[in-house]
Amino acid sequence: MTKADRMRAAFKQMCFSGDLVNLVVAPDALSAKIAERTGFKAIFQAGYATSANKLAQPDRGIADFGLMSNSAREIINAVNIPVFIDADTGYGDEQNIARLVRVYESMGAAGLFIEDQTWPKRCGHMDGKTIVPEDVMINKLKAAVDARQHDDFLIMSRTDAYAVTGLQSAIDRSRHYHEAGADLVFVEAPKTKADMQKVADSFPDVPVMANMIENGKTPLMTNEEIHEMGFSIAVHPNVLVYTETFATERLLKDMVTLGTTKNQMDQMVTFPQFNKFIGLDDINALEQKYATAPIKL
């Protein structure tokens, strides 16, 4: 069994186990490796963090499929836990959907979600969203299901209809998306706990995801509260981007003001610690294994 097969099977088992799948979005390969080392069993690669990390730009449809897929490949290669993918709107019609499914499957992703926003999309917690007709999204999901080669590769539907046409519309769309073949359901940005509960109650036999954005539109809750509501998956999409920005800015301000990093040493790992963490010992051992004696002239 390949690594990709193991990761897909593991993620599917997690989602349908009855336990909560706790996901954090990794902006890059290093943060993905840190998440794995600190105990996360699966991670997410998403547009907001990727656009911020790679482009220093907001999540407004600026990060295209090429950038997103390259970043996903780096993250998947860096870890040995499942990586779930934000595929935005699919970047085009059904042919584009089929292609992206094949690409993400081949690189070892555990699955992906497709959303029903119009392109260019925007972060689900930003204002001004618009959505495509329901039948357009259904055809995209059918194309995704038809294109996948492995049943363990999970496809999630995301709807942004809550902000546009209301809660019941979002639930109805998600039900139809599930009937079209989506394995998992995601209703983006409900504004109250009562509405979140209605979403969870509407899909008692389908894994449903809750999205926890600090200062976003959805109430921030603990994983325990989310699970008690009936959600199967909790994702924390922006916490690493926000934390890295805060810590980096604070450090650099000190460097500009004081001209030294001495006051921040207790906020860093050491040179040896970091080299060990990113696998320098393994690289050195590999180099030694294949080392040859120098040629004497």
TrEMBL record:
<dbReference type="GO" id="GO:0016833">
    <property type="term" value="F:oxo-acid-lyase activity"/>
</dbReference>
<dbReference type="InterPro" id="IPR018523">
    <property type="entry name" value="Isocitrate_lyase_ph_CS"/>
</dbReference>
<dbReference type="InterPro" id="IPR040442">
    <property type="entry name" value="Pyrv_kinase-like_dom_sf"/>
</dbReference>
<dbReference type="InterPro" id="IPR039556">
    <property type="entry name" value="ICL/PEPM"/>
</dbReference>
<protein>
    <submittedName>
        <fullName>Carboxyvinyl-carboxyphosphonate phosphorylmutase</fullName>
    </submittedName>
</protein>
<dbReference type="InterPro" id="IPR015813">
    <property type="entry name" value="Pyrv/PenolPyrv_kinase-like_dom"/>
</dbReference>
<dbReference type="Pfam" id="PF13714">
    <property type="entry name" value="PEP_mutase"/>
</dbReference>
